[in-house]
Amino acid sequence: MQQKLHLQKAEMTQVRRSVGEALWGMCAADAMSMPVHWYYNIDDIKRDFGGWITGFNAPNNRHPSSILTLSNSAGSGRTAWSSGGNRPHVVGSVILHNKLKFWKASGGSVHYHQGLQAGENTLNAICSLRVAQALTGGKFASVAEPAARGAVLADYVHFMTTPGTHGDTYAESFHRAFFSDWQDPRPTSSSKVLEFAEQRYQQKMNVSVPDSQLDAIGCLPMAIPFVLLSATANEDQAVSAAVEFVRLTHPHPKVEKYVTLYARALHATLNGECLKQQAEAALKSPELDAWDTCKPYIQKAARFPTSSAEGLKVHQSAVEMLGMACYTRAALSSMFYLAHEFHSDPHGGILANTNCGGENCNRGFALGALLGARAGYTGGSVPQEWKDGLRNAQEPIHEILKML
Questions:
Q1: Would you kindly state where each structural domain of the chain is located, as residue ranges?
Q2: 206 φ, ψ (degrees, to nearest 5)
Q3: pLDDT digits (tens, 9 = 90+) for 225-257
Q4: Is the pTM here over 0.90, yes or no?
């Protein structure tokens, strides 16, 4: 009996370490990619930073392919797509206080994350850490219970609508859509915000044409803590916790199957399953069906040293083929390809993801969680230099780990 308890305690310690490295990995990957987020011409990375990214950097004032000024400041998508032309601005009044001027700047090359410093995290990453803090601080019997979702949403509303809580300039469509709908009733208590979000989900799932901007890999950052904090629960509970929450931020019919796929892979990795095998299974799944596309790149990359320039070129070509943009299926395919190739190398995987450009922040966040989880379980870690260099994630991560 004593031996069994000792084994259980050892397993719990190992899983806790895996969760900790996942937190560090996801934040390191996001901060690494922040200055080159949405660089679709990867040569612009080398030009703007004097070579490929190898550490944390502040963004340049000018973004070579920014469409920030085309984004809809009153809701989802771009201004030209918006049917509600007279809707009030969400940006500058409800969220992103004092940032509307950057959305309306002439010239059109404003960086999405202008003003952030090297090692700072983007808004989605900070929101994710706040989810984890709300869940660990709430002492819930299970993070899958409705009260947990309500607490997270109430904190989200307070954080997003309070001036000065973060320094980012950009909020992607799901934030703008949520607060565009929220600003009329303006619920703030956990029960009322949860009720609002559940009713909104039902409404959005009954529309004939869902908002395509919600079918994006940005659905994962705020859902990931539900999996991390369900690491010792069974897989179905962990997946359910993530899916039940993501419905409330991303009410789109396709999103749930992708979150389920990712959550299963992350939960398995946290509990010691081989990440390379998890990534291959995900790429072969009917949801992605990308394994045959990946195989030639995997075979070609195997001819070069892991972190070589030639290897990076192969990975960049693979991500370009699989999908550099935000839409979930393509972005997850690229993410799982990188997870397969760098399953035991968080350092190399995080840098490769950044230097593949495109939607590298949210893709990197999901990848970093997987690479960190695997490293933590096998005795590895995210580089200490990166942990030390994170500007606004260190304190929340330490607080979360204390509560585990």
A1: 17-403
A2: -105, 5
A3: 999 999 999 999 999 999 999 999 999 999 999
A4: yes
